């Protein structure tokens, strides 16, 4: 296979940083981006071009950045939409601005970066778009409603994108990690609103302590996830000879929880089948 050119968002840490190193190890080329360019400039020593890209900027600014990348490097074969963060807090404790900020990064920022590259992919009739979703795209946990909402939204819009662009020769992958040892829960990445509302305060305190204890103790290995994604894109390793799925949960916890939700949903559909199917307008005889 000829070397691919990848563009990755959110490369300052976690999955994004690992993608850069794993892509290079496969012999491909990668363009690394981050909101704060100073946090990824060390990648220049590896021969990796770096660009400042805040995905919450305007569509015009993002378009200009992508155009600059294409002008300098000729093409992009694979887009990894990785940049995201998690907001923690109850519905009552999170402000409207907190909700807007969560969706601005996790949903609308992802839309803008993808829109900026879609004409390039469409004109070439090839390209792969990878979206890093989450177990929270399946399950809304208490105190994580904003994050889950953003990931549920991402799941729907990416599924629609897949349906719109598959006939153009474009590939779409939706990756759903469980709990992986990234910086997602670190104090520098997570934005939390501890509750002082009496009915929520104790549970909020316990959640904050639990998340702090889980940080850097998650069971998932980011290296293994990234290597699987590269296999899926390149048709190697675990993907060799396999039909690559559009959506793939990754992580033992993700497998267990998604399976449980699917089974519960099927059980509900069967139990309530007659009611569910009773809503059509009666035809007159």
UniProtKB/TrEMBL annotation:
Q: What is the source species?
A: Periconia digitata
This protein's name: NAD(P)-binding protein
Which Pfam families does the entry mention?
adh_short
The family database entries (PROSITE patterns) matched by this protein are listed as:
ADH_SHORT
Which GO molecular function entries does the Swiss-Prot or TrEMBL record give?
A: oxidoreductase activity
Recorded family membership: Belongs to the short-chain dehydrogenases/reductases (SDR) family.
- Which CDD domains does this one have? 17beta-HSD-like_SDR_c
Source species, domain of life: Eukaryota
Which keywords belong to this entry? NADP, Oxidoreductase
Against PANTHER family, the record matches this protein to: SHORT CHAIN DEHYDROGENASE (PTHR43976), SHORT-CHAIN DEHYDROGENASE_REDUCTASE FAMILY PROTEIN (PTHR43976:SF16)
């Amino acid at each position: 296979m000829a070397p691919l050119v990848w563009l990755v968002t959110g490369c300052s840490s976690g999955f994004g940083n690992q993608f850069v190193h794993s892509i290079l190890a496969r012999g491909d080329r990668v363009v690394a981006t981050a909101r704060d360019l100073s946090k990824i400039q060390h990648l220049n020593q590896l021969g990796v071009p770096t660009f400042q890209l805040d995905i919450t900027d305007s569509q015009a600014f993002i378009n200009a950045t992508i155009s600059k990348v294409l002008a300098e490097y000729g093409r992009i074969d694979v887009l990894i939409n990785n940049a995201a963060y998690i907001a923690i807090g109850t519905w009552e404790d999170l402000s409207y601005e907190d909700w807007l900020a969560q969706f601005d990064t996790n949903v609308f920022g992802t839309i803008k970066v993808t829109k900026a590259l879609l004409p390039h992919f469409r004109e070439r009739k090839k390209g792969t778009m990878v979206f890093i979703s989450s177990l929270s795209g399946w399950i809304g946990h208490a105190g994580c409603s904003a994050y889950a909402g953003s990931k549920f939204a991402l799941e729907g819009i990416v599924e629609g994108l897949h349906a719109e662009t598959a006939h153009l020769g474009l590939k779409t992958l939706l990756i759903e990690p469980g709990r992986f040892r990234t910086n997602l829960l670190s104090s520098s990445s997570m934005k939390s609103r501890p509750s002082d509302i009496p009915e929520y305060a104790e549970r909020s305190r316990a959640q904050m302590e639990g998340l702090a204890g889980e940080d850097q103790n998650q069971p998932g290995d980011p290296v293994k996830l990234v290597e699987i994604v590269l296999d899926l894109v390149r048709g190697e390793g675990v993907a060799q000879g396999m039909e690559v799925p559009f959506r793939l949960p990754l992580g033992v916890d993700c497998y267990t929880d998604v399976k449980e939700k699917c089974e519960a949903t099927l059980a509900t559909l069967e139990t309530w089948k007659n009611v569910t199917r009773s809503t059509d307008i009666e035809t007159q005889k």
